[in-house]
Here is the input.
Amino acid sequence: MKDTTLIQLVNDIKSGKTKAVDAVKYYINNIKEKSYLNAVVEVFDDAIQKAEEIDKKVKNKEPLGRLAGAPIIIKDNMLYKGKKCTCASYFLKDFISPYTATVVDRIIKEDGIILGRANMDEFAMGGSNEKSYYGPCKNAHDSTRVAGGSSGGSACAVAADLCVASLGTDTGGSVRQPSSYNGVFGMKPTYGKNSRYGIVAFASSLDQVGPITKTTMDNALLLSVIAGADEHDDTSLRAPVDNYLSQIKGNINNLKVGYCKQIIEKIKGTPYFSKYKKVLDFLKSQGAHLVEISIENIELALPCYYILAPAEATSNLGRFDGIKYSTRNKDAKNIGQIYNFSRTDGFGKEVKRRIMLGNFVLSSGYFDAYYNKAKALQQNIRESFKTAFSKCDVILFPTTSDVAFIIGSMNKNPIEMYLIDLFTVPANIAGIPAFSLPFDKGENNLPLGLQILANDNNEGIIYNLADFIEKNYKESK
Ligand code: GLN
Here is the structure.
């Protein structure tokens, strides 16, 4: 069972070689043994019973779903009816999900088992998983380092073999960056590819759920299961969902691979750059065409994100008032105090900072100067990507240009942490799909991620290239 892939495990369960109950027990045992990682904040008490139901289906030769018996962990901002969903916040510490998120429901309908909830940065705001009510999640390869964030628990759980696959959410990089730091595979799909119904909103126009897995093929399978239109989410795309596995062809002949001039400027001279160049040379030797492209204003994607995301967060978090949702301060004597005291107790420092930022950029007098300007810039960046994709099929970026940092080392200045999102936010701003895969090692032999971006709905092209690199590329010595 150790380090088994999702596809392998499902095959073994379907053929009777492995029992779903044994798989669940194996992961529960690993979660206990590696509890110091603090990746999983709750194991659901009915997981074993759900596994027994799958084993019974296998025994009775009943039809089985595409994820039969696979234990999957969800980020703590996804609703699963009857279970806690806290967004790693004191404010929601006792909140019980009233219904199930569509993406979670689709896993269950394909006979997957929801094993538990993963740690995260509070309300998905952060890039290190240090800002959690449950305390930091550690990196799976070095527990003195961060797991990354905000889906740190989801990525660490896959890397440390605490589950076979997981779900995270990505608003500005939160699936890809922790995947890169933990050496696993994470997809931020096209905006609208996955339903957001039942996902606690951070910045609704940017949020996307994404699978985190041990291989590209596992990722393609999991995305095929969860993606697609949902009547409960009007922003979900109506286009039919591809079977992404069938788009993995095993060759990259004539693929036009773009490298972006402005990004090269940023990483030139870093240890990452030589590794990046090496992978480009390799792709060329395998039949791809390299194309230099320019993405106008790409360096402005980061400030654009740190205006739009807090603005939307401010509005979304308005519902946490100490009345309908959230933990109410007991000393509050009137409605004003309920709001005031409960929010003061309930939200952590980073969440408060985002709310203040968001209110500032939305306030009258500043609305045009900040919010409207950022919206116009977003459109401009999206068009720059469209122009670039008229010349190439995919673009390669770093996910981050460095390995995971030491816990506590980035806490002096919030801007330092925001800057880590430089290479991940452009895909959210443009709404396009982007995937991070481990491709080489950096300092202390820790994993480094490579990011593949493509035009809207071209996840299949990304998976084909990623699978090719995963199977054929040899990292530098
Ligand atoms: N690090 C980014 C932020 O703090 C991204 C978060 C996310 O994608 N959820 O906003």
About this structure: The chain has one domain: 1-477.
